[in-house]
Specification:
The complex is a heterodimer of chains A (about 725) and B (about 450). Chain A has 22 helices and 26 strands. Chain A has about 725 residues and is an alpha+beta fold. In chain A, helix 9 runs antiparallel to helix 10. The relative contact order of chain A is 0.08. Chain B has about 450 residues and is an alpha/beta fold. Helix content of chain B is about 35%, strand content about 25%. The chains are: A alpha+beta (about 725), B alpha/beta (about 450).
Chain lengths: ~725, ~450
C-alpha cells in the first residue's frame, strides 16, 4: 500500500482513548467507556497486527452494520418507541462500530479500503479484477472519522443548549480541548502553533456567538411556532378529546387483560376522569388556583400528579390510613404491555396497587393512575379496591358544575324538551344540594330518552367543534360513546349535580381461561356523578367562597345504548392468532422481567460472549501476521539484545575459557560438545526460527549440556 | 478528422464536454480544499442530523465549532497574499519513471515575512483530447456493462490516469523573511518522454488548520526539461557478428576499452561506474559528478527502430522506443558505437553517434520520436543495407507485426546482416516462422520478456 493512497494519517496516541473517556463522562457510563478506551489504545501496548485485507475489513464493517441494524430493528419492533429512544440508541454508535475501529487499530496496513463501505463499489472492483482491468485501490485511515463519531455521540441525549448546566459545560470544555488537539495533528502539513492558536481562538469566539444566537433563535421559534412556551401542555396534564376513544375502538387489539379475583365483577374499568370541558376536549384541572389541594411534601411529581406511598410489601397506597386495611372487597390483576406515561385501567375505589417492582406509579386528583418511566415493557399490577374507603379522586368543587358558555343554550334547550330548567351556577351563591333520589330519577329519565331518541354509531357525525354536545343533543342525535358521556356530564351539571367525564374500558369479553380481554374495541367513555353530598364553603375569605361538595359518593352514569358493544365488527380468524401472540409476548416479557430470570440470562450471555470472545482471540492468535513492518518480535528483540545462548556462553566461558575472537558460537559449542545437538539447534533457531521447535527445547539442551560438562569434569 | 467526430459522436462529445467541465471544477475544488476540510464538512452534516433535537442534545455546540473552524480557515486562506519570484535550476534531461530532482530559488519581494509557503508546479493538464475520448477505448471496455460502456465514465478515468506529463512538483513548506531568498528542493516524476515546459509555478498558501489553501500564480522563469524514454534492464547483451570490430571515425581498435583522453565532467547517471566518480567535483557541487573520457576503441552496431503505427498503437510504439532506449543505454556502457536508424516524417534519418558524450544526444532524439502512419520500410531497408558493411550486428526493434515488417526483415536477413530482432506485440507470440529467431515482447510485460 502506497502512503499516498491513504487518506488521513492515524490519530496521535491516546486520542481515541481520551475521546471514549469523554463519552463515558458525558453519558455517565465510565465502565463501558474505559473498556473501549483500553481496547483501542492497546494498539500502542501490544505489537500484534493482522493483515485483514479487503475481506477482513468488509466483515468488520458488516458486523458493525449488523449490530446497528439489529438494535434499530429491535427498537422499531417495540410498539411504544419514541424519538428519544433512537437518540439514546445512536449515542452508542461508537460501540457498535467498535469491530471496524478495532480492525483499523490492529491491522498491519495503514488504512481501510474505501470500498469497504459500498457494496456496489466492491462488486465493481470484483468485476474489474475478473476482467483483468487494473483496479486502483484507495484507503482511508478511519481513526479521525471514528474520533469525530465519538465526539458527536458524546453529546447525544445529554444536555440542552438553552439551559447551560454542569453537563453542558463539561461537553463544551471537552470538545474544545479535544478539537484543539485534533486540529494540531489533522492534515499532516507542518503547522505554526502561534497562528493555529489565534485561529482557534477566533473559532471559539465565533462558536460562542453562534451558540448565543442559536439559543435566542431556538427560544423564539419554540415560543412562536412550536406551541411551546408557558401555554404548552405538559405531559403531566391529562386531557382527551372526542375521537381518541373512537380511534381506539377501531382496533380489535388486546391492550390489557384483566383477571378478577374477588368481589363483584365490574362492568367498567376506569383510566381517568376529566373535569374541564373545552370544545371537543376534556381536561383535568382540579387543582388550579384556589381549588388546588395541597400535595404532601415530596410527593408532587408534576402537574396534577403525585407519587404514591410505598409499602414494605412492595405495594403502593394512596393514603397512609389505608395501610392497615386488609379486607378489600374487590381484587383483580391487570396486565399487558405498557409504556412511559401510560394510564393504568383500574377499578372504582382502587386504593392499593401491588406486584410492581419499581417506584413508577403516580396518581392525580381525578383518580388516574399513571406509570412514569417504567423499566420494563410489560406490567402485571394487582388492584385492591373498596368503595367504603375514601376515594382516590378528590371530592368535587363548584368547577364540576361548570358548563362551557357556548354549550349552555343547547343543553338548556334539551333540558327544556324534557321539562327541566337548567341551573345557572354562581360562584358567590352556595350550589343547591341534590338528593340521591332526585339524581336517580333524573338519570333514569335521561337513560330512557337517550335509548329511545338517540342512535349509537361509530361514524363521526359532529361537525361543530365549538358546540359539539349541543349539536349532538338537538340536531344529530347520534354518535359514539364520547358524545353520550360528554353530553350526560353537561346535562347533570346543568341540573346542579357535580359530575365528570370518564374514559376507560368496558369489561365484557371473557376468554376461555376466564380472564377479561380489554381490546381497543372496548374503550369507552361515560360520566360519573357525585351523589348525596353537601356543599360547604372551604374558602378562607367569605367574600370569595370555595365551594366543595362533601359526604357523598361517586356513581356511574353510562347513557350509551347498551347495544354499542354488539355493533363491533366480528373477530377475524387472524385475530385469534394475534391475541395468542400478544399474550405470549406479554407473558414472555413479564417472565423475562423477573429478577431471577434476567440474572440467569445475563450470566448465560456473559458465558456465551466469553466463549465466543476467547474463540475469536484464539483464532486471531493463529492467523497473526506477525509484527508491523520494521518492528521486531519479542523473540527477535531478545536475540538481538543478548543472543540466544548469551547466558550459557558466559557460563561455559567461565569454565572453558572465553570464546576466541572470530570463532562463531556454533563452532565453539561443537568443539566442546561434539556429540550434542546444542550447536545445531542454536543455528536452526538463529537462521531458521520457523523451523525450530522453540526456546524451551533449547533450554532443555542447555541443561543437558551443563550436566554433560559437569559429569565430564567430575570424571 | 474533427468534422468526422462532429458528425458521428454527438453523444460522446456531449459527454466529453461535461466530463471535462466537471473535472476542471473538481480539480479547482480539490486543489483548494484539503481532505481534513471534507472530513469536517461531513462531520458538520452528521452532527446536524444526529444532534437535530436541541431539547435533548448538546451536539449543536460541536456543529457550531465545526462551522466556525471551517469559516475561520476559509477566510484566513482567502486573505493570504504572496509576492515572490521563482527561478528554477532544472537538469537538461530526465527519464520516464525516474525522479527528476531540481532546485527552485524563491525570493520574497514583500516587506513582510512570509510563512508556510508551499510551491507547486502547475500546467500539467491530464484531461484527454476530444479525439482521444471519442476513439480510444479503455482496455477491457467491451466487457463492461452497457451502462458503463454508454456513459464511458471509466474510459474517462482511464484517460485521466494516463494523461499528463508528470506527477509531483511540490515543495515542502518555506518561511521567508522580507526580501529573503531561499533554495527549495522539488522533484518531478515524469510519466512520458518528450519536452516538459515548466512555466506555471503556483504558491500554495494554507490556513493554520490546514483545511483550505489559496493558490496564487507567481512570477517564474520558464524552464525546459527533455524527458528521455523509459529504459528496461537488459540481460547480458552479447551482440555477435561477422565484423566484430570496426573502425569508427578517428579511433579504431580491435580491443574494447576506454581511451585515456579526458573529455570533461557530467552529472552521474544510473548505471555509471563508481570508478568514474569525480569526488572533488561532487564535494564542490553537492551532486554526484562523473568523469568523461574520449572513447577510441569501439565495435559498431546498428539500432533500427520501427516507428510505424500500422497494426500497432501508441502504447506499442512507446514500448518499442523504451526498448531501443534500453539498448542505447546498455551498449553505451559496453563501450561500442551505435548507429540508430529510423524514419521520421518523410525523410530518412540516420544517426551515427559514438561515445558517452553522444549518448545523451541519442536519448534526446528518442525522446522526440513520433510515430508515423506510413511504414517507410523500403527507405529503412535501403538505409540498413547501405551501412551493413560498417556494422558488426544490427538490433531491430519492431513496434508490431504484419506482412510489411516480415518482408522488411526477410530482405535484411537475405543481405547477410546479423540481426537481433525484438518485436513488441499483443499476447503470446504468433505461430510464424519469420519470428522463429525474434524476441517476442508482450507490450504489457516487456521487462519480464526481455529477461527471459
Amino acid at each position: 500500500m502506497n502512503d499516498e493512497n491513504v487518506i488521513f494519517k492515524a490519530p496521535p496516541r491516546l486520542l481515541l482513548g481520551a475521546a471514549f473517556l469523554f463519552w463515558g463522562a458525558m453519558h455517565e457510563n465510565a465502565l463501558a467507556a474505559l473498556a473501549a478506551a483500553l481496547l483501542v489504545e492497546s494498539r500502542s501496548w501490544v505489537k500484534w497486527r493482522w493483515e485483514f485485507g479487503e475481506k477482513g475489513f468488509t466483515r468488520a464493517w458488516q458486523l458493525s452494520a449488523l449490530i446497528l441494524i439489529v438494535l434499530v430493528a429491535r427498537l422499531f419492533q417495540s410498539e411504544d418507541h419514541v424519538f428519544s429512544d433512537y437518540l439514546h440508541l445512536f449515542a452508542w454508535l461508537p460501540f457498535m462500530m467498535l469491530p471496524l475501529g478495532l480492525a483499523q487499530q490492529f491491522c498491519s496496513d495503514e488504512g481501510t479500503p474505501v470500498t469497504t463501505f459500498s457494496f456496489i463499489a466492491r462488486r465493481k472492483m470484483s468485476a474489474d479484477r475478473k476482467a483483468g482491468r487494473e483496479v486502483e485501490m484507495c484507503y482511508m485511515q478511519i481513526g479521525y472519522p471514528y474520533f469525530f463519531l465519538i465526539m458527536i455521540t458524546a453529546g447525544m441525549g445529554v444536555g440542552v443548549i438553552v439551559k447551560i448546566g454542569a453537563n453542558e459545560i463539561r461537553y463544551i470544555v471537552g470538545v474544545s480541548i479535544l478539537m484543539a488537539v485534533v486540529l494540531l495533528h489533522l492534515g499532516g502539513k507542518r503547522k505554526r502553533k502561534g497562528a493555529l492558536g489565534v485561529a482557534y481562538l477566533l473559532a471559539l469566539l465565533m462558536t460562542a456567538g453562534m451558540c448565543w444566537g442559536g439559543i435566542l433563535g431556538y427560544q423564539f421559534f419554540m415560543t412562536r411556532y412550536s406551541g411551546g412556551g408557558p401555554n404548552r401542555n405538559s405531559s403531566f396534564e391529562s386531557q382527551t378529546s372526542i375521537g381518541q376513544v373512537r380511534k381506539l375502538q377501531l382496533s380489535p387489539k388486546v391492550i390489557w387483560r384483566y383477571r378478577h379475583e374477588k368481589g363483584k365483577t365490574p362492568n367498567l374499568v376506569r383510566l381517568s376522569s376529566y373535569s374541564w370541558a373545552d370544545g371537543t376536549s376534556w381536561r383535568s384541572r382540579f387543582r388550579l388556583g384556589i381549588h388546588r389541594e395541597k400535595i404532601a411534601p415530596g410527593r408532587e411529581v408534576g402537574g396534577d400528579f403525585e407519587s404514591l406511598l410505598e409499602q414494605e410489601d412492595g405495594s403502593y397506597l394512596f393514603q397512609q390510613s389505608d395501610g392497615n386495611w386488609s379486607d378489600f372487597k374487590s381484587q383483580g390483576v391487570i396486565y399487558g404491555m405498557t409504556s412511559d406515561l401510560a394510564l393504568v385501567p383500574h377499578l372504582y375505589g382502587t386504593k392499593k396497587l401491588g406486584g410492581i417492582q419499581t417506584e413508577i406509579l403516580t396518581s392525580n386528583s381525578m383518580g388516574a393512575i399513571q406509570m412514569v418511566a417504567p423499566k420494563q415493557k410489560a406490567m402485571e399490577i394487582e388492584l385492591f379496591a373498596d368503595q367504603e374507603l375514601t376515594p382516590v379522586e378528590h371530592d368535587p368543587s363548584s368547577r364540576d358544575l361548570l358548563v362551557p358558555s357556548f354549550e349552555i343554550e343547547g343543553v338548556d334547550k334539551f333540558l327544556a324538551e324534557m321539562g327541566h330548567v337548567g341551573t345557572e351556577y354562581s360562584n358567590s351563591a352556595k350550589p343547591e344540594d341534590v338528593s340521591e333520589h332526585g339524581f336517580l330519577e333524573f338519570r333514569e329519565e335521561l337513560r330512557r330518552r337517550f335509548y329511545e331518541d338517540f342512535e349509537y354509531t361509530l361514524f363521526l357525525t359532529g361537525a361543530n367543534r365549538l358546540k359539539p354536545y349541543s349539536e349532538f343533543l338537538n340536531q344529530k342525535r347520534k354518535g359514539h360513546c364520547e358524545y353520550f358521556g360528554g353530553a350526560a356530564t353537561l346535562l347533570l351539571r346543568r341540573m346542579g349535580i357535580p359530575s365528570r367525564y370518564v374514559v376507560g374500558f368496558a369489561v365484557s369479553e371473557q376468554s376461555d381461561s376466564g380472564e377479561y380481554l380489554l381490546r381497543g374495541q372496548h374503550a369507552h367513555a361515560w360520566s360519573q356523578a357525585y351523589v348525596g353530598g353537601t356543599w360547604v364553603n372551604e374558602g378562607e375569605d367569605a367574600e370569595d367562597p370555595v365551594w366543595r361538595c362533601r359526604g357523598g359518593r361517586w356513581m356511574t352514569v353510562d347513557l350509551t345504548p347498551p347495544d354499542w358493544l354488539g355493533q363491533m365488527e366480528g373477530q377475524s380468524w387472524m385475530q385469534g392468532f394475534s391475541d395468542w401472540w400478544q399474550k405470549a409476548k406479554t407473558n414472555l416479557t413479564l417472565w423475562f422481567a423477573k429478577t431471577s430470570v434476567r440474572g440467569g440470562f445475563k450470566i448465560f450471555f456473559i458465558c456465551i460472549g466469553s466463549v465466543i470472545g476467547l474463540y475469536f482471540f484464539y483464532k486471531l492468535l493463529g492467523i497473526r501476521a506477525g509484527t508491523k513492518a520494521g518492528a521486531v518480535s519479542p523473540w527477535e528483540e531478545r536475540v538481538r539484545g543478548e543472543g540466544i545462548l548469551r547466558g550459557f556462553e558466559k557460563w561455559l566461558g567461565r569454565r572453558a575459557g572465553p570464546r576466541p575472537a572470530g570463532v562463531p558460537l556454533a563452532s565453539w559449542l561443537r568443539q566442546h560438545f561434539p556429540d550434542g545437538e546444542l550447536a545445531s539447534r542454536y543455528e536452526e533457531m538463529t537462521f531458521d526460527p520457523k523451523k525450530s521447535q522453540g526456546a524451551v527445547s533449547l533450554e532443555g539442551l542447555v541443561k543437558e549440556a551443563k550436566v554433560i560438562w559437569k559429569s565430564r569434569n567430575e570424571k | 478528422m474533427l468534422s468526422k467526430i462532429h458528425d458521428e459522436k454527438r453523444f460522446e462529445r456531449w459527454l466529453y464536454r461535461n466530463y471535462r467541465y466537471a473535472t476542471s471544477v473538481g480539480t479547482f475544488i480539490t486543489e483548494r480544499i484539503n481532505p481534513p476540510a471534507w472530513l469536517l464538512i461531513g462531520c458538520t452534516g452528521g452532527s446536524l442530523i444526529l444532534g437535530a433535537n436541541w431539547s435533548r442534545s448538546i451536539v449543536v455546540v460541536l456543529t457550531f465549532l465545526f462551522c466556525s473552524v471551517l469559516f475561520v480557515g476559509l477566510v484566513w486562506a482567502l486573505f493570504r497574499k504572496v509576492e515572490v519570484v521563482v527561478v528554477r535550476e532544472v537538469p537538461r534531461t530526465g527519464a520516464v519513471g525516474e525522479p527528476l530532482p531540481y532546485v527552485a530559488k524563491v525570493q520574497n519581494l514583500k516587506s513582510s515575512a512570509l510563512r508556510d509557503l508551499f510551491l507547486k508546479e502547475g500546467g500539467n493538464d491530464s484531461r484527454p483530447s476530444e479525439w482521444e475520448f471519442c476513439y480510444l477505448e479503455e482496455p477491457g471496455e467491451e466487457d463492461r456493462n452497457i451502462f458503463d460502456r454508454k456513459l464511458a465514465f471509466y474510459r474517462w478515468k482511464w484517460l485521466l490516469q494516463r494523461g499528463g506529463q508528470w506527477r509531483g512538483g511540490e515543495s515542502l513548506g518555506v518561511d521567508l523573511d522580507p526580501d529573503e531568498s531561499k533554495e527549495v528542493s522539488m522533484t518531478l516524476f515524469p510519466l512520458r518522454r518528450g519536452l516538459i515546459r515548466l512555466n506555471d509555478m503556483r504558491a500554495v498558501l494554507p490556513d493554520p488548520f490546514g483545511l483550505f489553501q489559496r493558490r496564487s500564480a507567481i512570477l517564474n522563469e520558464e524552464s525546459e526539461v527533455l524527458i528521455i524514454p523509459k529504459r528496461y534492464r537488459l540481460p547480458n547483451v552479447v551482440l555477435d557478428g561477422e565484423s566484430e570490430l570496426k573502425t569508427s571515425g578517428e579511433a579504431a581498435s580491435t580491443v574494447r576499452g576506454e581511451g585515456d583522453e579526458f573529455l570533461g565532467l557530467r552529472e552521474y547517471r544510473s548505471g555509471d561506474s563508481l570508478r568514474r566518480i569525480h569526488w572533488k567535483a561532487w564535494a564542490r557541487t553537492g551532486r554526484p559528478i562523473v568523469k568523461q573520457f574520449e572513447d577510441n576503441r569501439f565495435p559498431r552496431y546498428g539500432l533500427v527502430l520501427d516507428t510505424s503505427l500500422k497494426e500497432s498503437g501508441k502504447d506499442h510504439l512507446e514500448e518499442a522506443i523504451s526498448v531501443a532506449a534500453s539498448f542505447v543505454s546498455t551498449l553505451d556502457q559496453q563501450d561500442c558505437l551505435l548507429d540508430m536508424m529510423f524514419v521520421r516524417g518523410e525523410s530518412q534519418v540516420f544517426m551515427s553517434e559514438r561515445g558517452e558524450a553522444q549518448t545523451e544526444r541519442l536519448m534526446e532524439v528518442l525522446a522526440e520520436v513520433q510515430g508515423s502512419e506510413e511504414g517507410g520500410y523500403e527507405s529503412l531497408e535501403q538505409l540498413v543495407l547501405q551501412h551493413r558493411g560498417e556494422m558488426a550486428a544490427c538490433v531491430v526493434v519492431l513496434s508490431g507485426w504484419n506482412k510489411e515488417r516480415e518482408v522488411f526483415l526477410a530482405k535484411i536477413r537475405a543481405a547477410g546482416v546479423t540481426m537481433h530482432v525484438y518485436v513488441v506485440g499483443v499476447g503470446e507470440q504468433p505461430d510464424d516462422d519469420a519470428l522463429a529467431e525474434a524476441h517476442w515482447l508482450r507490450w504489457d510485460h516487456v521487462q519480464e520478456d526481455l529477461l527471459t
